[in-house]
Design a protein that fits this description.
mainly alpha, Serine Threonine Protein Phosphatase 5, Tetratricopeptide repeat
């Protein structure tokens, strides 16, 4: 709430004033920036840093947290904030360094343990990340995010049964949060149980209608149980929100092939290929659809091109 209020207040500043504030912060003249903005204490500077982070202005946010660290080097949140900025910009190794500094100061802070686990997952160190989620759960056994994130890490390791147990723990604690439902749905899908997974994807999109990954995977599950019309509608939901999503365009094409609507399928594969000309699966299946339409020459050209890009394309499971 405080961050939202700060963003609202900042949006009322003139562009000229904001430009000056940003310039002063970038030059390391924090005190001058505070005077311009009317900031009276360090908490206001934290608000500026997190507001910049919310705006995805990572360069400026990093400079703000650097200044906070200089002013209050014993403040765990200063180090934590810098770590969050680095993680948001994909600098996970750097983020871990700052999270470690924060944990030295405040080892009982659940959020820092969670964020370090998240950074390790960003580095695909899933086994290691689980240790940090477990540390968070030692401090707060009812933390929904810790259970959910641990489930995601276990899923990445192929331990889907264990992942389901974590998602169930998450749902017990926050049944209205879509992430737990979605996570269990994904685990069931990987276990080859698309019919069971549908219940969980449906519950996820009820709670979060803009959850495109839930819509997408619901579409895959529906397709796996032969409900191709309904699957296509799920991919449409993704495309309403992200019209350039290649995966949804491509999978919409697959549903149309399954419905034997080959001409429409070709149109969807073309849309996918305009965005990704080297999508081997889309090329291959476009060729298959063209072949069904009797356009053998163009079909052969598409399939040949697909095989040049990926010689194993015809062996792949369609996703």
């Amino acid at each position: 709430m405080e961050e939202k209020l700060m963003r609202d207040n900042m949006s009322k500043k003139t562009k000229k004033k904001m430009k000056r504030i940003r310039k002063l912060i970038s030059m390391g003249k924090t005190k001058n920036a505070l005077r311009v903005m009317g900031v009276k204490d360090i908490n206001d500077l934290f608000d500026i840093g997190y507001s910049l982070l919310q705006e995805s202005d990572f360069v400026m946010a990093e400079k703000v947290f650097d200044q906070i660290i200089q002013l209050v080097p014993d403040n765990a949140e200063a180090w934590h904030g810098k770590g969050i900025v680095l993680a948001c910009s994909g600098q996970y190794e750097g983020a871990i360094h700052y999270y470690d500094k924060a944990l030295e100061i405040d080892p009982d802070n659940v959020q820092i343990w969670l964020h370090k686990g998240g950074a390790l997952q960003g580095l695909e160190k899933h086994e290691e990340s689980i240790h940090y989620y477990d540390k968070a759960l030692e401090i707060d056994p009812d933390d929904f995010i810790a259970w959910s994130n641990k489930g995601a890490a276990l899923g990445c390791l192929g331990k889907h049964e264990e992942a389901i147990q974590c998602y169930e723990e998450a749902m017990k604690r926050d049944p209205d949060n879509a992430d737990g439902w979605y996570g269990k749905g994904i685990a069931l899908l990987y276990l080859g149980k698309p019919g069971e997974s549908l219940t969980y994807f449906e519950e996820a999109v009820k709670r979060d209608p803009d959850n495109v990954v839930a819509w997408f995977n619901k579409g895959l599950a529906l397709r796996d149980v032969g409900k191709h019309d309904e699957a296509g509608k799920c991919f449409d939901e993704v495309l309403k929100r992200y019209p350039d999503n290649v995966g949804a365009l491509y999978n919409k094409g697959i549903t149309l092939i399954n419905l034997k609507k080959y001409e429409e399928a070709v149109a969807w594969f073309n849309r996918a290929l305009r965005r990704d000309p080297y999508h081997a699966e889309a090329l291959y299946l476009k060729g298959a659809a063209l072949k069904e339409l009797g356009n053998h020459e163009e079909a052969a050209a598409c399939i040949d091109k697909a095989l040049k890009i990926d010689p194993t394309v015809f062996k792949k499971k369609r996703r």
